[in-house]
Amino acid sequence: MDEPEAKELETRRRKRNSKMKLKQLEGLLGDLQQFSNPNVELEQYPTGPHIASRMLFTAENSYGDITDKVVADFGCGCGTLSTAASLLDAACVIGYDIDLQSLETATLNAEELEVEIDLVQCDITKLELKGHQIVDTVVMNPPFGTRKKGADMEFLSAAMKVASQAVYSLHKTSTREHIKRAALRDFNAKSAEVICELRYDLPKLYKFHKRKEVDIAVDLWRFEPRQN
């Protein structure tokens, strides 16, 4: 893409996103492609447009943590949270995931909505960014830890090491006390706040699922890292 084309794309994007409404954001996210062959060991479940839009809209409109910020999406999957951050005018969005097929879908989604997202294939638990790139905000819908015990804590630990401003993350409401204790005691959080409780519609994706969908209570957390 040459410079005039890039400027024209940026102008169109800014005009579209300048007054992005919650329902508009949710509608755009609802058109994204999701996992075609989800990996149960990675606990791959789509982040629905209802939750994703509210998560990012709240991060920006209540705290100013998205627009003009460097945003990282840990375990980005097909790029729903990354796309939302870009639609809300993040300065730079980087999506990290270990699964190449998911990243390919995320690339298609970004192209479809004409948003810019840098996508990186890596293991989040081995990510080292300090001193290389300043990340303001981390957003993520981590594994709940039902297949690999402690996977949710590994993601949270990694996010708290990378984010300079805030971490937004979804966790089962049933783990609330454990999450808060670990964040404050073990992960150097200055604060750990449940912003709201949401209902996560878990669709029937795997053979062992008995019901068509399951409604799970999840907390949307905002963690503020302690400045070293």
Automatic annotation (TrEMBL):
Family annotation (Gene3D superfamilies): Vaccinia Virus protein VP39
Chain coiled-coil ranges: 103-130
Membrane-spanning parts: none
Cytoplasm is among the record's keywords: no
Keyword Chloroplast: no
Keywords for this protein: Coiled coil
Family of this protein: Belongs to the methyltransferase superfamily. PrmA family.
Protein name from the UniProt record: Methyltransferase-like protein 5
